[in-house]
Amino acid sequence: MREAGGLAGAEAEDETNDYLARELTVPVGAAGADPGGLVHALTYVPRAAAAGRLRAPLVVCCHGLGESGLRVAPVAQRLAAAGAVAIAPSFRGGGAPTTGPTTAMTIGTELADLDAVLKTARTWPFVDTARTALFGRSQGGLVAMEAAAAHPAQIAALTLWYPALAAPASVRRRFGRLDAVPETFTSRVDGRDITLGRDFARDLWTRDVEAAMRRYPSPVLLVHGEADADVPLAVSQAAARTLPDARLERIPGAGHGFGDANFEAAVGWTVDFLAWAGVLDD
Questions:
Q1: pLDDT class for 232, splitting at 50, 70, 90?
Q2: What is the pTM of this model?
Q3: CB burial string 224-257: b at 16+ within 10 A, e below
Q4: How many other CB atoms are there within 10 angstroms of residue 6's CB atom?
Q5: Residues pairing with 134 in the sheet
Q6: Percentage with pLDDT > 70 across the chain
Q7: Quick check: 98 and 37 in contact, CB under 8 A?
Q8: Most C-beta atoms within 10 A of its C-beta, which of 61, 118, 126, 167?
Q9: DSSP state for residue 80 in the 8-state scheme
Q10: What is the Cα–Cα distance from 270 to 173, expressed in whole angstroms?
Q11: Do residues 252 and 193 touch, judged by C-beta distance below 8 A?
Q12: In angstroms, rounded to a whole number, what is the distance separating the alpha carbons of residues 92 and 113?
């Protein structure tokens, strides 16, 4: 049985891995219009850390719009193999069948979910809280950026793959006025239409992502495909100019999502960057 806020063992362990796979359930309290609930996450713990032989860095991986933690689990697994306690939450309303309707999700609810996961993980004795980083893809990149800007002293580095940092400007451009936003609307990403609620637009409307970026002084790696039609490369180019300490890696021909060789290149840059930033061990 899985306990809220605790780790439950996977039904079968792969002894060939350098890490253990666990399931995590974290409660999120109600706040304003957000009723709270439970966040489920896939968690990967290096065997040496689980055995108490060392304290490992922490990396939380944030998925994109209409997705679950399964979408970023391959990245989390690679980070765990590199020595990090890596967590892939399924944010409420993210798209998984058990996470609730997408119309109830906002950037604010995802930030609350991420905060709850971080607070829980930082209580684990095998986690080195001074070496905490965030990874985010697409909308998860926006969530990671906002979280890091809100608590810059707690996040040592960020890795953002094709981050949707222009989402507030896009929603304002799309509707013109906040009172013109319908009760529900769709957003197309990766060839799928995701149904969102008015609260999603309301939450985005006044977010100043440029100000958030300027508040975050620690290193940021941006990885972006040059053929991305969902989040244009120009978004990361602008971010690289705005962030105080940023590096941009471009992948020719890659779209919104990396596969095969492009995925390997992006993961390699991510691991190397987090080692350079002092999060992962060399």
A1: very high
A2: 0.94
A3: bbeebebbbbebbebbeebbeebebbebeebbbb
A4: 13
A5: 60, 158
A6: 94
A7: no
A8: 61
A9: H
A10: 32
A11: no
A12: 7
The sheet with strand 220-225 has its strands ordered as 7-9, 19-28, 37-46, 85-90, 56-62, 127-137, 157-161, 220-225, 246-251
Average pLDDT of the chain to the nearest whole number: 93
Q: In one letter, which amino acid is 162? A: Y
What single-letter amino acid sits at 195?
T
Residue 160 forms beta bridges with which residues?
136, 222
Which runs of consecutive H residues, i.e. helices, occur in 82-232? 107-121, 139-150, 167-175, 198-205, 209-215
The pLDDT tens digits of the residues spanning 70-99 come to: 999 999 999 999 999 999 999 999 877 667
Report whether 67 contacts 74 (CB < 8 A): no
The DSSP line for 194-263 is EEEEHHHHHHHHT--HHHHHHH--S-EEEEEETT-SSS-HHHHHHHHHHSSSEEEEEETT-BSB--HHHH
Number of Cβ within a 10 Å radius of residue 217: 13
CA 46/CA 234 separation, integer angstroms: 37
